[in-house]
Amino acid sequence: MKKLLIAASLGLALAVPAHAATYAIDPTHTFVFYEIGHFGTSTNRGRFDRKEGTVQFDRAAKTGKVEISFDLTAISTGVAPLDKHLQSADFFDTAKHPSAKFVGEKFVFSGDKVTEVAGTLTMLGKAQPVTLKATQFNCYMNPMLKREVCGGDFETTIKRSQWGMNWGLNMGVPDDVRLLIQVEAVKQ
């Protein structure tokens, strides 16, 4: 009888669903970059210096949810006049839409590694589906924080016109924009 109770208890414990852990985006190890061609000669690059978000992550259940917001007023190209132009109504229209947000709720795994996250990117008041592909992903015990940190490098290419960002298309400024997101999040 005792063995039966132990076996039943163990079975119930194994049947309990795994719970997602919560991770806070580490802004010192998380960056959102963009790249866009410049009239077929070179590549313009910039980044958004202020970002925040959370990740719900369950490796055992192979599920997750990520929310990351980035401040479009904090765009940094290294060229102040270009930053101002990108903040104008020609591009991000930061007076009306100061931030963008990615919410991903479909995680794809290979083993215990995330290989892509599908979700929605909301920018300029429009939401469009976006899938971020992982070029690398890992979790580790941070020796300084004494907590688990998970993260990776993710990328996708979007068409800016899907969000109504059409300036320069008729002059040869490309529609395709490559987004690169380097993210690390600390288990809470």
Furnish the topology, listing elements before pairings.
Elements: H1 2-15, E1 21-25, E2 31-38, E3 42-48, E4 51-58, E5 63-71, E6 75-76, H2 80-87, E7 99-110, E8 113-123, E9 126-142, E10 147-159, E11 176-187
Antiparallel strand pairs: 1-4, 1-11, 2-3, 2-11, 3-6, 4-5, 5-7, 7-8, 8-9, 9-10, 10-11
Mean pLDDT level: 90
- Strand proportion, as a percent range, falls in over 45%
**CATH fold title:** Lipocalin
pLDDT < 50 stretches: 1-17
- Under CATH, the homologous superfamily reads Lipid/polyisoprenoid-binding, YceI-like
Gyration radius (Cα, Å) is: 20 Å
Count of β-strands: 11
CATH architecture: Beta Barrel
Helix fraction bin: 10-25%
Number of helices: 2
- CATH class label: Mainly Beta
Q: Sum up the overall morphology in one term.
A: elongated
Secondary structure category: mainly beta
What distance lies between the first and last C-alpha atoms, to the nearest angstrom?
Answer: 41 Å
Give the spatial strand order of the biggest sheet. 1-4-5-7-8-9-10-11
What is the subunit organization of this protein?
single chain
Quick one: biggest sheet? Answer: 8 strands, antiparallel, barrel
SSE order, one letter for each helix or strand:
HEEEEEEHEEEEE
What is the count of distinct domains? 1
What's the gist of this structure?
The relative contact order is 0.19.
Describe this structure in words.
This protein has 188 residues and is mostly beta strands. It has a single domain, classed as Lipid/polyisoprenoid-binding, YceI-like (Lipocalin, Beta Barrel), CATH 2.40.128.110. Helices cover 12% and strands 55% of the residues. It has 2 helices and 11 strands, in the order H-E-E-E-E-E-E-H-E-E-E-E-E. The chain has an 8-stranded antiparallel β-barrel with strand order 1-4-5-7-8-9-10-11. The relative contact order is 0.19.
